[in-house]
Amino acid sequence: MTHASLPLALTQGDPAGIGPDIAIAAWARRRENGVAPFIFIGDPDVVASRAALIGIPVNIETCNPADAVGLFDRAFPVLPLPVGFEVQAGQPHVGAAHATIKAIETAVALTVEGKTSAVVTNPIAKSVLYEAGFGFPGHTEFLADLALRLTGKQVTPVMMIAGPKVRVVPVTIHIPLKDVPAALTEELIVATCRIIDADLRQKFGIEAPRLAVAGLNPHAGEDGALGIEDRDVVHPATMRLRKDGIDAFGPLPADTMFHDAARRRYDVAVCMYHDQALIPAKALGFDDSVNVTLGLPFIRTSPDHGTAFGIAGQGIASETSLVAALKMAAEISLRSKVNT
């Protein structure tokens, strides 16, 4: 089967959050939004009850991935994975954690086996999963563990936020700001940039990616006057990368990297910590940015927002970011050399 004949594997996410809402909305407006066929991995009862709450008529059919593409035009295809109790919109429950995790495991296994073309994950509530004993900081680390289990290959996952105006990658992610300088090493920057360069070529079709590397300190440290990390860590990393033929340049003052003219000079901004990357990404594309995990042996995208329990089931959650994630996953799967 070709990628065009395979559905995307869309996980339910936390069933009490807006994952079911936006999946239903994306399917309902599939033609106007150009959404590629997907199979929803989750509880059909959750889909039915949520569709009734948000007032969107939906014809649900349970099926296997092989039948999803043929059904997609007339029905919302679901690979059934029951939660085990009646889910209340906006009311997360630790009892749903197993189904949330199982949906991710199933989506990855189906994609690695070549039965689906890519993984698209709806938002999870990490606090709920932690309460159930989930042993990973988040989606990204769990996906890397699944890749190891299913392929036997150790991978280093890299989080990229890709929007219509900018792509950003934080080198360090979910750690306190006070811990960033110690965690930031030349080797980490080099390894991260190598993965970015390889995946932009392979999955995004960019022949010669340009990587703008931000400095850690104000004004990129001013040659040590405002901190030595940029002089002693970031700059040597970019020099190594350039010797390897990777077009990485920096360290650059982060406060001048994100205006219109600056963004035209690079394909991705490599930032030193979480907010340095995600503040400009969300300011420039809050509703339509996509979380893409680089470095995996399969394709994974996700909406760049959380579970939004406060608006689940109210019919006001926007499916824009999920639609962008579905479209990006489909585009990458057609262009990419992975899973072939």
From TrEMBL:
<protein>
    <recommendedName>
        <fullName>4-hydroxythreonine-4-phosphate dehydrogenase</fullName>
        <ecNumber>1.1.1.262</ecNumber>
    </recommendedName>
</protein>
<feature type="binding site">
    <location>
        <position position="140"/>
    </location>
    <ligand>
        <name>substrate</name>
    </ligand>
</feature>
<feature type="binding site">
    <location>
        <position position="282"/>
    </location>
    <ligand>
        <name>substrate</name>
    </ligand>
</feature>
<feature type="binding site">
    <location>
        <position position="219"/>
    </location>
    <ligand>
        <name>a divalent metal cation</name>
    </ligand>
</feature>
<keyword id="KW-0664">Pyridoxine biosynthesis</keyword>
<feature type="binding site">
    <location>
        <position position="174"/>
    </location>
    <ligand>
        <name>a divalent metal cation</name>
    </ligand>
</feature>
<comment type="similarity">
    <text>Belongs to the PdxA family.</text>
</comment>
<feature type="binding site">
    <location>
        <position position="274"/>
    </location>
    <ligand>
        <name>a divalent metal cation</name>
    </ligand>
</feature>
<feature type="binding site">
    <location>
        <position position="139"/>
    </location>
    <ligand>
        <name>substrate</name>
    </ligand>
</feature>
<keyword id="KW-0520">NAD</keyword>
<comment type="subunit">
    <text>Homodimer.</text>
</comment>
<dbReference type="InterPro" id="IPR037510">
    <property type="entry name" value="PdxA"/>
</dbReference>
<comment type="function">
    <text>Catalyzes the NAD(P)-dependent oxidation of 4-(phosphooxy)-L-threonine (HTP) into 2-amino-3-oxo-4-(phosphooxy)butyric acid which spontaneously decarboxylates to form 3-amino-2-oxopropyl phosphate (AHAP).</text>
</comment>
<keyword id="KW-0862">Zinc</keyword>
<keyword id="KW-0963">Cytoplasm</keyword>
<keyword id="KW-0460">Magnesium</keyword>
<feature type="binding site">
    <location>
        <position position="291"/>
    </location>
    <ligand>
        <name>substrate</name>
    </ligand>
</feature>
<keyword id="KW-0170">Cobalt</keyword>
<dbReference type="InterPro" id="IPR005255">
    <property type="entry name" value="PdxA_fam"/>
</dbReference>
<keyword id="KW-0479">Metal-binding</keyword>
<feature type="binding site">
    <location>
        <position position="300"/>
    </location>
    <ligand>
        <name>substrate</name>
    </ligand>
</feature>
<comment type="pathway">
    <text>Cofactor biosynthesis; pyridoxine 5'-phosphate biosynthesis; pyridoxine 5'-phosphate from D-erythrose 4-phosphate: step 4/5.</text>
</comment>
<dbReference type="Pfam" id="PF04166">
    <property type="entry name" value="PdxA"/>
</dbReference>
<keyword id="KW-0560">Oxidoreductase</keyword>
<keyword id="KW-0521">NADP</keyword>
